[in-house]
Amino acid sequence: MKILKYTKTKLGNEIQLLGGTDFKNILVIGVFHGDEPQGKFLIDEYLKTNPNCPMLFIPCLNPDGMQCDVRTNSNGVDLNRNFPTSNWELTEKNEFFGGNCPASEVETKFLSEVIEEYKPNLILTLHAPFKVVNYDGPAGEIAQRIAEIISYPVEESIGYPTPGSFGTYCGVEKCIPTITLELDEECPVQELLEPVHKIFDLLKN
């Protein structure tokens, strides 16, 4: 895996886009929220044994939040509410704060640039804790196949408003099939290796 693109965060951490010399336009993203670190571990472990995997990976989108063990980035912004969607709104400053304006954060800008430059035709993001396969855009069929591997239900809606979300930005407004895999946070992450790596194998094939 090579570093295809990178940027630095407010705290000086590096966000990396990884890919091989020959890759499909499938993007896997870990750690939107810093207190949901499972994605980075699962991606890193997969790449140890699949160094030439023909997909694109951002193992950790929010390294500042992960460093501080908080949901938001170092500016107190929930990255999954900061995308320039038609339903973005200025909200109160709590853990779901979407920023003072859309795409205000370096992490959001970096991911938006990756989407524009590499034009993925399928995106998988790894979250916790809801134990569902959520999807946006034309992703119902692949969501069902993922659900069969991990034995989670498929949910088109997460059940509450998410203005400025990445799913709305890519799935609804750009029509890119976008899967939000909500992992069971009560499950030891080692036990998630087998099903999640099977999902990666499904996507790469």
Count the helices. How many?
6
**Structure summary, number of beta strands:** 8
Radius of gyration: 15 Å
Query: How many structural domains in the coordinates?
Result: 1
CATH domain topology:
Aminopeptidase
Instruction: Give me the side-by-side strand order of the main sheet.
Output: 4-3-5-8-6-7
Description:
The protein is an alpha/beta fold and 205 residues long. The chain has one domain (2-204): Aminopeptidase. Helices cover 32% and strands 19% of the residues. A 6-stranded mixed beta sheet has the order 4-3-5-8-6-7. A two-stranded antiparallel ribbon has the order 1-2. α1 (38-49) links the parallel β3 (26-30) and β4 (56-58). α1 crosses α6.
Give a summary of the structure in a few sentences:
By secondary structure, this protein is an alpha/beta fold. Helix content is 32%, strand content 19%. The longest helix has 16 residues, at 189-204.
What is the topology?
Blueprint: E1 2-8, E2 14-19, E3 26-30, H1 38-49, E4 56-58, H2 63-68, H3 106-118, E5 122-127, E6 132-136, H4 140-150, E7 154-155, H5 166-172, E8 178-182, H6 189-204
Parallel strand pairs: 3-4, 3-5, 5-8, 6-7
Antiparallel strand pairs: 1-2, 6-8
Q: Which features characterize this protein?
A:
8 strands, 205 residues, single chain, Aminopeptidase, alpha/beta, 6-stranded mixed β-sheet, globular
